[in-house]
Amino acid sequence: MFTNKSKFLLDNPTQMNYGIAVTDVDGDGSFELFVAGFNGPNLVLKYNGEGFVNIADETLADVGRRAIAVAAGDMDGDGREEIYVLNTDTFAGRKQFGDRLFDYPKGKWVDLFSLPKNRDALNLTAGRSVICVDRKGTGQYGFFVANYGGPMRLYELNDQGRLLDVAAEAGLDLTTGGRSLISLPLVSNHMDIFAVNEHGRNFLFRNQGDGTFKEIAEIAGIDDPDENGRGLVALDADGDGRFDLVYGNWLGPHRMYLQGVPGHFKDVAPPDMAIPSPIRTVIAADFDNDGYEELFFNNIGEPNRLFAYRDGTWKAIDTGDAWEPDGAGTGAAVGDLDEDGRLELFITHGEAAVQPISLYTSPENNNAWLRVLPLTERGAPARGASVTLVGEERTQKRVIDAGSGYLCQMEPVAHFGLGENPVIKQIEICWSDGARIKISSPKANQLIRVPHPST
Nearest-CA neighbor of 398 among 390, 406, 82? Predict the structure, then answer.
C-alpha cells in the first residue's frame, strides 16, 4: 500500500518525538503538522511546495520540555485554534513540567498557563492524551486531559478569560490510568467522550445535553476491564450509519466494537486484527481513495499492520514501506498537507529509540475524492461535526477529529475516496449544536469549506 516519501521531510531531526496534531498553525488557511518533541524541540512542519520545513518559533519549539501529546481547538472563539501540549516527565502521579496551552492573541504565541491568573489551574499530573470537546454546543472548545494517577481535567475559559478546570462540574473528574481519548456524537446527538484506560476499565461519558456527562461504559459493553488500552479511532466500520470503535490493547487482544442497537457494542474483531501487539496508534483513513477506509495499526518495535474492508469483512493487506519492522513508533497522523487529494501518513518515533519522522503515501491512481471542512460560527474547524456522503452506490460517514490515535489529532477534514465513480448525490453536515445543512451534487476532486448555517 504505502511508499516511503520521507525525503520530502526537509527538516527532520533525529530525536524522540511522540504525539502529532494537524492544525493551521500560521493562520494561512492550510494545515501544518505540530510534532511533540520529547528530548528535543517541538516541530511545526509546513509544506512549502517542495517539501516540509520547520516553522516553529522559539515559543512553540519550547526546548527543554517533555512533550508527548498535542491537540488543537478554538477555545476562545476567535476563529483560530489554540494548541494544547501535554508534557509528561514521569510515568504516573505528580510531574515536574506542566502543560502548555498556546494562544495567538496579538500576533505572537503565548502560553496561557504561564499567565498569573491561570497558574493555579496548571496540570501537574502525568498525562497521556488530550482532545478538544464542545460539551455545550457553543462552538467554543475545552481541552480534556487523560491523566495517569490523578483526576482527569477539562479546561475551559470563563467570561473573564480565565482558565478553569470544570471536570468535576461536568462529571468527568475520575482517576485512573488514562491513555486514549476520543470525542464525537457516538451514543447521543452531542459530543460524547470515550476513554481507553490502563489497569482499569474504560469510560464512556454520555453527553446529557446540558454540559454534563454520565459514565456508561459497562452498560454499553465496552468497559474491557482486564486490558490496557492504547490507540483508538471511531469509524462506521460496517456501513450502517452508526459510528463504531476500534482500539488496540497493549500486548492484549485488539478490539473492533460495532454499534448495533444504539448505545450497545459488540466486539467482532477478526482473528488477524485481534492478535496482540505492542500497539501505539490506530488510524482509520481512505489512503487509496477507493471509497473504503483502511485501518492502520502502528506498533513499537514490531511491524505495523494494515487492514482493508474486502468482500464484507476486514482483512490484513500488504503495508508496503510502512511495515517498519524496526520502527519505534510512538504516534501517527494523517492529512492532505500538500493538497493533492491524497492523504499522507506521518509516523513519529521515540521512547525505545531515537529515530526521525517517517512520511508515507499510497501510489498515485485515478480514483476521485471529496474533502469537506465544516466551520464553526466563528470560522474555526468544527471538530466533532459529522459528515455524511451519499453516493450512487453507497453512503459514507466521517467525523471531524477532535483528538484520537493516542497522543495525536488528525486533520479537521472529512476525506472521502470515491473510487472510479465520482457521482455524489448529496452531503450532509451536522454540527455539535445540532445545526444541519445539505449540499446537493457537489463536484468531486475539491475541498469544500462549509460555514456554519448561522453565519
Answer: 390
Greatest C-alpha distance within the chain: 59
pLDDT of residue 311: 87
Region at 395 (left for phi over 0; alpha for psi -120 to 50; beta for the rest): beta
Q: Assess contact for 164 and 156: CB atoms under 8 A.
A: yes
**What residue type is assigned to position 29 of the chain?**
G
- Residue among 205, 238, 202, 246 nearest 221 (CA): 202
Residues 233-257 have pLDDT tens digits of: 999 999 999 999 999 999 999 999 9
* C-alpha dist (Å) from residue 149 to 136, 176, 219, 238: 28, 6, 24, 36
| Strand order, beta sheet including 244-249 | 229-235, 244-249, 255-259, 265-267
Instruction: Tell me the C-alpha distance between 386 and 153, whole Å.
Output: 25
* Cell representation of residue 106: 496579538
Q: Which amino acid is at 438?
A: K
**In terms of residues, how long is the chain?**
455
Q: What is the pLDDT of residues 380-406, one digit of tens each?
A: 999 999 999 999 989 999 999 999 879
Mean confidence (pLDDT) of the chain? 97
User: Any residues with CB less than 8 A from the CB of 264 and at least 6 apart, and which?
Assistant: 219, 220, 221
Contacts of 249 (CB under 8 A, 6+ apart): 224, 227, 228, 229, 230, 255, 276, 279
DSSP state of 120: G
Phi-psi region for residue 420, left (φ > 0), alpha (ψ -120 to 50) or beta?
A: alpha
C-alpha cell at 350: 521515540
CA distances from 352 to 179, 329, 406 (A): 18, 9, 17
| pTM greater than 0.90 (yes/no) | yes
Phi-psi region of 177 (alpha: psi -120 to 50; beta: other; left: phi over 0): beta
Give the three cell numbers for residue 166: 470544570
Among 193, 186, 97, 66, which Cα is nearest to 142's?
193
